[in-house]
Amino acid sequence: MSSAARKQQVDAPTPAVDGEAGVGNSAGTEYVTRGARSHRIARPHLRMVSPLRPERASRGVFAVVITSVLSIGMLAILLINTSLAQGAFTISELKSEQTVLVQQEEALAQVVAAVAAPEALEQRARDLGMVPSENPVFLDLTTGKVRGKPKPAPGTRSTMPRLLTPADATAAEGVDNGLAGLPAAAADQDPAAMDAAAAQAAKNEAKASAAKKAKNPNAENNLWEDATVLDVTRDLASGDAGLVAVPVP
Amino acid sequence: MPNRGLHLADPRKRGTILLLVTAVALTIFAGRLVELQAVRGETLAGEAMDQRLRVLELPAQRGAILDGAGEPLAVTVEARNLTADQTMVTDPAAVAAQLAPILGSDTDVLTARLTGDRRFIYLAKALTPETWDRISELRLPGVFSEPASRRVYPAGDLAANVVGFVGDEGAGLGGMEYAYEELLTGTPGEMSYERGPGGGAIPTGAQSRTDAQPGTDIRLTIDRDIQYVAQAEIAKQVKKARADDGTIVVMDPHTGDILALATAPTFDSNDPGATDAKDLGNRALTSVFEPGSTAKLMTLAAVVNEGKANPYSWFKIPPVLMRGGEDFNDHTPHGTLNLTLAGIMAKSSNIGTILASERIGGKKLAKYLKKFGMGEKTGLGFPGEASGYVPPYDQWSPTSMPTIAFGQGFSVNAVQAAGVFATIANDGVRVQPRLVDALVHDDGTVETPDVAKPTRVVSPEAASQVRAMLEAVVGPGGTAPNAGIPGYRVGGKTGTAQAFNADCGCYRGVVASFIGMAPVDDPDLVVGVFINNPRVGRYGGQLGGPVFKRVMTYALQARQIPPTGAKASRLPLGG
Description:
The complex is a heterodimer.
Chain A (H helix, E strand, L loop, with lengths): L2 H8 L42 H64 L1 H10 L10 E2 L6 E2 L18 H6 L19 H25 L7 H4 L23
Antiparallel strand pairs in A: 1-2
Chain B lengths: L10 H29 L1 H12 E6 L6 E2 L5 E13 L7 H12 L3 H8 L6 E7 L1 H9 L5 E10 L7 H4 L1 E2 L5 E3 H5 L1 H5 L3 E6 L13 E3 L6 E4 L3 H18 L3 E7 L6 E7 L18 H4 L9 H10 L8 E4 L2 E4 L2 E4 L7 E4 H7 L2 H8 L4 H10 L28 H6 L8 H12 L3 E2 L5 E5 L5 E2 L7 E2 L3 H15 L16 E11 L4 E13 L6 E8 L7 H19 L17
Parallel strand pairs in B: 2-10
Antiparallel strand pairs in B: 1-8, 2-3, 3-4, 3-5, 6-7, 8-9, 10-18, 11-12, 11-23, 13-16, 14-15, 17-20, 18-19, 21-22, 22-23
Helix pairs in contact in B: 3-4, 9-18, 11-17, 12-17
């Protein structure tokens, strides 16, 4: 549209003042006096608009609500992320603690296994003065019978720690392991004599078995001699009841 | 004055051009965005994920090997491998000087390994965590570690021949470690996570984890204490007799459980490299030999079972016997003798055994040998196990029957030989020997391996009579009086078998053996001792008897087997 017409539109609400263009509003018609032509223009009916305050107020609340939702959300995200990171941190701390404890446990288990190995146990038993039993003897607890042929085990008594009786304890309180300051033996018990007796018994046995060996340097060679001796001391009541003597021609 | 040209002064024109330029720029951006998000979106996301994603293999813990009581014979423990980044090592000599005393290795070797420009090289493997702690305290630049594992055998050489050993990579190379490799190894797991720039895991990133499946524990039937005593005793005797090697087998005849399987010389599983390769096996199962007189038990048991003789039956024994064109003698010369069957057993008369075997014939004898398990695998499934060899009956020559009757001319391994006695001890029922008691899975389930059904070889009455004859061997007039245990009834059989020497292709040297059981009227234990090629001493009774006595004494105590309290039978041996 032409700039003149636009100007006319712009100037439409100005009140008519003689010879001059002016600004103002008034009801009714007015005469536009700009330029050569002046004619009636129907002015739009103006009315009061309600004040902006309520709009402004609802916009403000809306903004606050949105802002608060946003900030709460972001705060929540921040907190969650922090706690996740914290959790990961705790996990790695606990893991390294666990590694250390597992290592300690394994080291201790290895020590226990080494000490419990049969070789180590035998060595410690021998250090205490123990010897392996040469023939097993059992005590039947229900009947009180001894099963087997008991005999003293070989070995010197001097390396064995002596068991303390309660009487010894009152006399030798504070002595460590009972190895120092041993009280004297009871009158009817003579350790030296018992040692000597045991040593003599062992010597006798060794002599007897040596003599036997001298007689039979190679047991196999003299086997056939025994064949002429009929061993008639068979005891049929010994539990071989199933055997039946059937001479075969 | 009207402008020609672009009229840029005109704000409207400026605005238009600005708008156009912005529109073009935004279009390019939009296009790029579409390209990146929509077209290449997945590919790029995938590449980014690949960059971040780290996949770790979670190694599976190797199963342990336990003895009958659950004590560990082989366990895997944590270890560390020492690595170095050569580019970060500024002074190799100084670093090597600090490491050498801790590692116990040569400074020069370490210096050489630290020099260069490799980013990753191993300095030492399978260090204990304590050693690594000491090294890490030094804060040496360029020296790192990676987690690893180490196989440890807490009891050293105890049952090493059965347990076996592992190689550098942790895989089993012999014995049970090799035989049960798959079960022991388990299944490795996998863990994946997104890795941030610092190396740590991104907590909200993609994660997945498949736990590793630890290996199964193998529980053997071996009793640690009996094994220890057996190993010590056979090692002592092999040394004393200056023999090539020796074996001891201790079995429970009712269940077939092998309580001890000891060989000498043996090795330490922690250091298999220190021993000759030929000693790294288990001779008890891999070595075969002709059993000799201990196999007379089969012949005489067969004769008694068939009802052709009993312990009181009389036989006239000439000084020499000709069969199949060959002369057969006894181990020491004698005149013509009258012996009972018990006497033949007690005195180990070859001629007497041949005469007795002729009452059942070769075919039946071959059948009994098979029933006793000769020539067949024991069922233990041990790597390298030999099954022995018995010539089939239709290939027997005229001398086969007498030879096989007294235990030469066929081969067995130590467990088979002891198994014959276990059958007689078990009232004539043969059970399959067992080395593996149970497989303990990680979730706690215990699996017992299947065994073959027991088979009856001889009747209980025959077994009882044969046991009484075995008792005569240990009594006065027998070949093994030094195998007796005071208070107990003991029975067994000696053997002094000719050993076949592959080098000369002839018989040279002997295998001296003694296999026995106690208490003989109701046996709960069988112990077999085998000494190969002794140079000092020769006879089974002489070399094997004392070892049997000591091992059996200990085993009776360990298994809490009291004497039966019955009196010894005194069978007539001759007249």
